[in-house]
Amino acid sequence: MQFRLSLLGALTLVAPDGSIATPRMAKTQALLAFLALADGRAVNRAALQDLLWSDRGQKQGRDSLRKALAELRLCLSAVEPNPLETTGGPVRLRPEAFDIDLFSQGARCGVESGLYQPAFLEGIDIPDDEFNRWLCRIRLELDAQGMSRTTPVRQVSSTPCTLLPARPLFEVGILPVDSAAGDGLADRIANLLLNDLITLFDQSSLIVPYDFRHMAGAPPGIGPDVMLSLQVSGLGDTFILAARASHVGSARVLWSAVDHVARADLGQEWVNGWTAATFDKLIERLAAFDGFDAAEHHAARMVVSAVDRIFRLTPGELGEAGRLLDEACDLVEASTVFGWNAFLTAFRAEKEGRERNHEMLERAEWCAARATELDRHNPLTVALVAHVYSFVLRDLDRAAEILAPVRDASSRSPFLADTLSMLHFYLGDYKLAHRFAREAVNTGRFSPFRFSFTTSLAMSELMLGQTEDAARHCKAALAQHRVRNGHLYEPTLRTLAAAAGHAGLRDEGRAALDILGRQGGYDPLERLKSGDTPYPNPDVLKVVRQGMERLNVQ
């Protein structure tokens, strides 16, 4: 059963039973035509907003798009499942549900016979400059192809999706290295740092890097939002690094830093730490900068804001982070955006109780699957998705399979190192878990998630019998929380209580248990006995429970 869709002449949609199903609103008709030419590819909502509501604000544009999608879904309701797919964000039409005149042999025969051929979307009147530019371009391409005398008409379907931004991202240009003449070592250091930084930009899905190091300047038509420069100079046994990021439009400095490193300390570990810290600081400044007001920055800002709220840990902040990530998924099709949504959704389900949140777990699994479909080689995406599968869905084999291709990138990604640490922790290899946790702590020492990395280190030490070290690192993790939060990371509190119980630090352990109970609203020991236990490894569960019981708290 197929709908018949006429795009030549006035748009007409005929249902399989022969009834007319043409949308009433002109913009819904235009939306249908645009999606039809996408030939089954998913289109970001941001692109659709820019096409049909470019003169509206973000909220008004989103609301108008939702109304148009609702009308289109109703027009297509004669076929089940509905050919319009909108779950999770990007929008697509199932092409097998449509017989489109533009792609038919009849359309080509009409041109070849010299018969009159009506114009594409003839008579449509939409007062939006972006839409009219797109409409004009499609008509010109169809005229130039002679309605595909030599090439399939379906090839025009690649045109619409390339006219609008595919992903709302920040753009950063990398300027040539500035070092003292003849200082080859300084040049090599600077380029090594910038190469690693470009990799982090690309993996984030939030920053598009442009490498101008071997060019005199940006080529025509390429205009990044920000230019990043790095100057490296040697002074005795020390290298001095001066980095600066400046807004192109206003020449305002977004961020600058000067670092000193001794030659003896200049190893891969220092390089990894510098690039991770620089990325964290730069993305924070990009999101906060008031000079970015274009629509393409909107979703990137929402993701940064959501991630910031995740590590504040309070239920209200986590709920707001979820709202922001859901909205970002409506606007952008990027693997890490869906990865963060999966991670947060799973984290909330685990925090609130897995047994009571089956719908939330299903949502986390869907987002994780979508993130993997979009990019299964991105280390950050893989780390986020593996966290969902291993620690929440309890599928350790699947998590190990997902992580295997990217595990060598752990030295450059603290989040990936931490995920590998936790995987080995629950598989029972505590020494390897400790090694990856130490790697995450060292590389992510400037990350807002460092309290989580330090907690992972303490958890592995607890299972290795290093209970005093575990308690010490738990207290360090608590000190790494934001002071204003008033909410503490529950794995840190559980590990501190257990480690303190085993180490004889009864007062510290009791205090941690008391906070855990008041903050969560449940009995920590009872939670360990229920189906909501946060430990999929029975050996870990036993050690934690015994440590808490030694505190004589029932």
From TrEMBL:
Gene3D superfamilies: Tetratricopeptide repeat domain, Winged helix-like DNA-binding domain superfamily/Winged helix DNA-binding domain. GO terms for biological process: regulation of DNA-templated transcription. GO terms for molecular function: DNA binding. It comes from the Bacteria. This is SARP family transcriptional regulator. It comes from Rhodovulum euryhalinum.
